[in-house]
């Protein structure tokens, strides 16, 4: 692919809060920490401002078409760890999550838009934070390495990571 001369970027957290495939868990950034004692509290469902984000999950084909119409030939995006491994330490990756990203890559390449992938944009699965205190525990690093291995083995994702 040629050099990216015009592009755009997003990160998974800003696109969708939770996926429609219902297998993605809460990422850590989907929660908030109180100042004292660092108690994790889920957002109140009734008062949470928006769980859909811009609904990229449901509208990515239309959005990518708009990117092409704007003349973009590059798109920097992130992959959500909790979409691939909902609990972070799952035995097998979420196939629906992998299919979702494969479909995005297919659509981007259909419009000759080069995907530029970030494999982690502050998206630690909340389950690992609750279970092992996140990155403070070596087991989280091991889980991240497993996630990276899956991402780098998947052919469509592998060919679009730097």
UniProtKB/TrEMBL annotation:
Belongs to the glycosyl hydrolase 1 family. One of its GO terms (molecular function) is beta-glucosidase activity. Gene3D superfamilies: Glycosidases (3.20.20.80). The keyword Hydrolase applies. Keywords: Hydrolase. GO terms for biological process: carbohydrate catabolic process. It comes from the Bacteria. The keyword Cell cycle does not apply. This is Glycoside hydrolase family 1 protein. GO terms for cellular component: cytosol.
